[in-house]
Amino acid sequence: MSQTPKHSADAPVPTSTDVARLAGVSRATVSYVLNDTSAVRISEPTRRRVREAAEELGYVPHAAARSLRAGHSRMVLLPTAHVPVGPLYSRFLNEVQWALRALDYTVVQYGSLGLGADEAARAWAELRPVAVLSLGEIGLTPHGVRVLKRSGAKAVITLGPQRVEGAHALVMDQRAVGSAAAAHLLERGRRAIGVVVPAEPGLDLFSRPRLAGVRKAVSEGGADQPARVEPLTMAYDEESAARLAAAWRGLGLDAVYAYNDEYAQLLMRALQDAGVDVPGECAVVGADDLLLGKLLRPRLSTVHIELPTGREIAELVDRVVRDPDGDVERHDLMAAHAIGRESS
Amino acid sequence: MSQTPKHSADAPVPTSTDVARLAGVSRATVSYVLNDTSAVRISEPTRRRVREAAEELGYVPHAAARSLRAGHSRMVLLPTAHVPVGPLYSRFLNEVQWALRALDYTVVQYGSLGLGADEAARAWAELRPVAVLSLGEIGLTPHGVRVLKRSGAKAVITLGPQRVEGAHALVMDQRAVGSAAAAHLLERGRRAIGVVVPAEPGLDLFSRPRLAGVRKAVSEGGADQPARVEPLTMAYDEESAARLAAAWRGLGLDAVYAYNDEYAQLLMRALQDAGVDVPGECAVVGADDLLLGKLLRPRLSTVHIELPTGREIAELVDRVVRDPDGDVERHDLMAAHAIGRESS
DNA sequence: AGACGGTGGTGACACGTGTCAGTTACGTGT
DNA sequence: ACACGTAACTGACACGTGTCACCACCGTCT
Asked: Which sequence ranges form a coiled-coil region, renumbered to this chain (chains A, B) (predicted)?
């Protein structure tokens, strides 16, 4: 066990054939024993011999060969985004992973970094996953969906701000977030609302609908007291925030919805440093209901987002895998409600 | 193209045999053409016919069958942690992924959620990765390393606080972080240092060495002015922080090193709410040099950690894959230096 | 004595691919 | 006229696994 720790590199990887030879049985028997196939009866002494042989050789089955033979796998592909993901998102992702594993799926995150949308889909298809669950950003075209389905994927599910032709869609309508924020500000009597739009590329898939949601809420707000909406581009760094804050007084705004809590924190700090009173002079509201919001002074108002649970997602995947020809579902989810704290 | 969008489920997945049949050539020719095998000459007209046939059928090669035949893959397995990862870590992970892909490796994140260490290693080994790069928490035993190498993994590399027998180790000595923080506080004249130890399980792999580093720096600090170290357990939520802050005066401490910036933020806020003056009454220092530290008032002192770049890691992986029998390296990295701001 | 049924196991094929060794067809040199 | 080289392609095997159909053996019943 402790000898020859080094040149194990040239030792061939043990296969079920090696196990069979060592146990003095056929390869078929080995397969039956190690997979606990109930339809075939193997005597207990033989079972033990096989198990011991496998143990001694350190035999580990070859997943690729297995799924090649089986004609299918239980692999769920989870394309990873290349955008900087927030804490809310990464917690959700972990939850989904757990739930899928509980249903006996093999979850694989696979990055498509640097590839085009269709090239990425092709690369995913090579792995022959039984399901593809694309979270957040799309990066999936109708053509990509066809390629995946053609390669045997039973379920292609997108969870994001918009739907993709051919795929099951869990539409998270980000506009609801903007609407909730705007409604909250209007209710508090604000009438000139700035909307921070992140300068970072990749986030616009989220930020644009959120902005649209603000506009919608404002226009529906009733004509009794018309309000104004002003988009403001800002990057996630101190200089950009300071620049925006310095110009604040000239903008004539009395409120700002800052995309999410992290941007809100950054901007609020810059505003305070520039001598702008929050919430007196300007109300600030973020989104995502992160812990940090409660730590700020004034405490940050935010929009809490109700995401589906990991288990719900996993069960949807499982349902679609079992019945791929079911109707293409389109669920609208994402309930959002504002939480008023001290900053608004 | 737009017809039969539904019952594509029963259509068999096209293989290279189908392509060959459609193009009127042998399967071997298809393989040569699609892989651009330079050693074999195929006429240009034939090449085109094959390519067109593949395109028409939507042929995508089967990665499993390919690597089965080849006897090896270029897959790098990146076990994902189940601990809540910080922003520093997740940025680093993305960087590594990029760099590996640039070297033509297929990066796969694979979670071992809910499995024991050795069961997880076995599950990884089934995928027959050419390399395993375990970041952060270990979750890898010497036995697990043997299983992986036995299954054909050329490189097993751990990057974490401690090394694992048999694997190449990039040791990030977390003690350096604690030492830097303590040295900084001592230099500023503090003599009674509290050390926040997260209550969250899974983080103790980091927090324990950091605490040890504090102790080391204090004991080496010279006997001219002996200092005291006091471990303090705290969870990452407001109640826990408030509880600790309420008892603060009784502890007789004049400084605290709070594991990382996020815990420091939480504690500092609680201390301020409890009327403890920072830094007058108590100096606070965090770690990881996150952006949020600069946004706090007083600005948070921190310990900046110098991580290896993604490219360095990727090149190490590549080197070990090419020469697996090279010496088991043990790199000590992680330079850490304190950044004094206003909170200490 | 021969048919019968159950126990315990095996031989052989298929999955989709890459690649080596051959095999045509054809022009060329002596 | 015949060997020879070369361009262009193909037949067949191997990779490691799961599973179906089949087989040998042995005790039991009529």
From this structure: none
- CATH (domain of A148): 3.40.50.2300
CA pair distance A159, A76, nearest whole angstrom:
14
B27 touches strand C (CB under 7 A): yes
pLDDT surpasses 70 at B17:
yes
Residue B136 has what DSSP assignment?
A: S
pLDDT in tens, B154-182: 999 998 877 888 899 888 888 999 999 99
Same domain, A142 and A260: no
Identify which of B111, B122, B146 has the shortest CB distance to residue A107: B111
Q: Do residue B127 and residue A63 have CB atoms under 8 angstroms apart?
A: yes
Q: Among all strands, which nt has the closest C1' to B44 (CA)?
A: D8
Residues A46 and A152 in one domain: no
Confirm whether B68 is domain-assigned.
Answer: no
Cβ of residue B114 lies below 7 Å from strand D:
no
State the burial class of residue A51 (Cβ atoms within 10 Å of its Cβ: 0-12, 13-18, 19+).
middle
**Does B206 share its domain with B320?**
no
Q: Which residue range is the domain that position B284 belongs to?
A: 175-306
Cβ atoms of residues A293 and A341 within 8 Å: yes
Same-domain check for residues B270 and B152: no
Backbone angles phi, psi at B229, to 5 degrees: -120, 135
Can you name the residues that pair with A80 across neighbouring β-strands?
A111
A63 Cβ nearer than 7 Å to chain D strand:
no
**Does the CB of A179 sit below 7 A from strand D?**
no
Averaged pLDDT of chain B:
89
Separation between Cα atoms, residue A300 and residue A7, nearest integer Å: 60
> Which residues, including other chains, have CB under 8 Å from residue A105's CB and lie 6 or more apart?
A74, A75, A76, A130, A131, A314, A317, A318
Residue range A214-269, pLDDT digits in tens: 999 999 876 666 899 999 999 999 999 999 999 999 999 999 999 999 999 999 99
C-alpha–C-alpha distance, residues B131 and A20, integer Å: 28
Return the residue of A nearest to B119 by Cα.
A60
What are the tokens at B110?
């694979």
**Rounded (10°) angle between helices B87-102 and B310-322:** 50
User: pLDDT value at position B178?
Assistant: 96
Residues B182 and B168 both lie in one domain: no
What whole-number distance in Å separates Cα of residue B89 and Cα of residue B19? 45
Which of B11, B60, B154 lies closest to A125 in CB terms? B60
Q: Which two tokens stand for residue A255?
A: 């409120």
Which of A61, A86, A104 is at the close of a domain? A61
- Compute the distance between CA of residue B20 and CA of residue A290 in angstroms, rounded to an integer: 56
Q: Which of A317-326, B25-34, B66-75, B129-138 has the lowest mean pLDDT?
A: B129-138
Structurally, how many domains does chain A consist of?
3
DSSP B277: -
Residues of B in contact with A80 (CB under 8 A): 97, 109
Chain centroid offset of residue A311 CA: 14
